[in-house]
Each structure stands twice: as structure tokens, then as C-alpha cells.
Write a structure and sequence with these properties.
single chain, 147 residues, mainly alpha, two-stranded antiparallel sheet, 4% strand, elongated
Length: 147
């Protein structure tokens, strides 16, 4: 589930960036999501969960499955939106496929990081002061002898 939510968030950012870079234009918004297509929070989120359930641990199968499903999304669903007058796209299908494939690789890396299979060590062996042992105080030994 965390990777599916991350996917929806990342895809929303990509979609907004595409509008800013004029890769596509939303001509018929869907209320209340003005510029974000509704399938990001529906079928795309569910498909991400199922793809990870059945292909995680086999990267090449995951990548091929993603490319096939993204191909279907781009060449059929987006074409359908363009024909209906919901969107206008100004990038090629291949460029859109590259964007979605990059997102798929990013999601796989994110999921590996979430599962603890990838450890990123920024500064090795640095601990906060609270976990460091206290220095021995010579007065402590003298107090023990008096008791």
C-alpha cells in the first residue's frame, strides 16, 4: 500500500509538471480534481498494488508487466481521452512511455527501500549523544568505596 500511495502522489506531480511544461493540457476537468485525471486514484492505484503483489522480487518481469500495462494506458486510454476532448497531448507516445517507465523503476527502488533491502548510509557510524556511553567519573568509584 505505501508504494501505491507513493505512486499516486508521484504521478500527480508528474501530471502537474506536464501541464506546466505544456506536455499536455486538460480541456475538460473532472470535478473536484481540476487538473488531475481520476484514474490516478482508482485503477492506477489498484494496478500498482497487484503488479507488486505478483512480480516483486523479479525485476524484469515487473518491468515488462509495467511497460505492457503502460502501453495499454498510453495508446488506448489516453487516445480515448483525446478523442473525447478531455485532454490535448503535445508529447509523443514514446516520450510518455519513457516517463511511466521511469516512474516504474523509481517505484521499485522505493519499495526495496521500504522493505529494508536497500540501506542508504549517509554518514557512517554517527550516533546521537543520547546513545553514547557516559565517560567514567573517578568520583563514582570513590563513592562506591565509602558505602
Amino acid at each position: 500500500m505505501p508504494v501505491a500511495l507513493f505512486c499516486s502522489l508521484a504521478f500527480a506531480f508528474i501530471f502537474e509538471a506536464g501541464i506546466s511544461f505544456q506536455w499536455w493540457v486538460v480541456t475538460e476537468p473532472s470535478y473536484p480534481l481540476i487538473n488531475i485525471p481520476i484514474f490516478i486514484y482508482g485503477p492506477y492505484l489498484v494496478a500498482t498494488i497487484w503488479i507488486f503483489k505478483y512480480t516483486y522480487g523479479r525485476f524484469w518481469l515487473y518491468l515488462v508487466t509495467n511497460i505492457v500495462l503502460d502501453y495499454i494506458l498510453i495508446f488506448f486510454l489516453i487516445d480515448w481521452f483525446i478523442q473525447r476532448g478531455v485532454w490535448d497531448a503535445y508529447i509523443s507516445y514514446f516520450q510518455a512511455l519513457l516517463v511511466t517507465t521511469f516512474l516504474a523503476v523509481l517505484l521499485y527502488g522505493y519499495h526495496m527501500w521500504q522493505m529494508g533491502e536497500v540501506a542508504i548510509e549517509m554518514v557512517p557510524k554517527v550516533k546521537p549523544a543520547a546513545v553514547k556511553p557516559l565517560a567514567k567519573d573517578p568520583n563514582d568509584e570513590a563513592d562506591d568505596d565509602r558505602s
